[in-house]
User: What shape does this take?
Amino acid sequence: MTDSEGLARLRHIGWRDDALPDDPRRLARVVAQHRAGYEVHDGTAAFNAQPAGQFLKRGLDPALRPAVGDFVLLSHASHPVIEAVLSRRSTLTRAAAGERYERQVIAANIDYVLVLTGLDGDFNPSRIERYLTLVEGSGARPVVLLSKADTGVDVEAAVSSLRARLPAEAEVHAINGKDPATVGLLAPYLGPGMSAVLVGSSGAGKSTLTNTLLGEEKMATGAVRDHDSRGRHTTTHRALLSLPTGGCLIDTPGMRELKLTGEENLDLFADIEALAAQCRFADCGHGKEPGCAIQAALASGELSPQRWRNFLKLHEEREEQAATMEARLRRKAGPKPGGKPRRGGWSHDDD
Ligand SMILES: Nc1nc2c(ncn2[C@@H]2O[C@H](COP(=O)(O)OP(=O)(O)OP(=O)(O)O)[C@@H](O)[C@H]2O)c(=O)[nH]1
Ligand SMILES: [Zn+2]
Assistant: This one.
């Protein structure tokens, strides 16, 4: 295999450097993680690989283990073993219950997270906001895609109300997932060397858009899929899709249903945090307390009730999840020797 052939092969899996790694035959990309091991793709085919023993050690920071999107070096054995994980340019993480409160990598080396929402009944600005908080700080960039713009809905109104809520730099596009012209619109995010994931709730149009991007009918869409055949197409070869635009789309069920956990930061609501800091009392409950800056902002219209509700909802969810995780960790740790209950630290008592 010549160098240029080797490079062309690696481009299919999103390898972006102009140089080949020292031993390109050993390079592959993790496209899925199963109970029984990993599924990797080397640009020609997808196959299974096991993690080397070093990745299985108890107590190892989960962030050091191979994750979907990682470029890895394999052994030459007939049953390939993942021996090393190359350094990451971006890391999407979420909180995970482990031996301590820690973060789990859900995808690595992703450039764009395409957050897809239908402009039909699925349209939900709060959910979009929450997806953006998940992507924040990952090194990947979110792109909000509003599908079904062709269905007679008031696209302008939806887009402008959404823009008003999101940070100014957020990218928002209304699209028709069935229209081949959409490929051109999204090409800047899906060019050679780019890796993207598509997230969004069921029915938002992920399969439809993926098919349009592929330029052929490769996946079953909701229109033709009956209830029982759900998941039938979740086969190995479509976990990493090489797009005609040169980029690649990582599409595994876990990625599709990115869930929010207790650890997203709430930077999108920094304005609300700033307001709360102006309340007269440091422990203000933002109810009937005198001198409450939040209530004042709500009264003056500076803060919309909807935005305040969203903040409260997200905040509450976050607290709940953090408490659940703490409780789980505490159960795992067992009672402290000496029998005396531990003081402080835990805000919830669950036994
Ligand atoms: N008119 C129109 N219909 C769309 C568009 N995008 C998706 N649809 C339709 O919406 C339905 C659901 O689309 P899918 O692509 O199956 O949705 P999905 O996100 O893959 O759904 P899951 O596989 O359940 O996660 C199908 O009937 C599509 O034809 C669009 O931009 N315009
Ligand atoms: Zn207050």
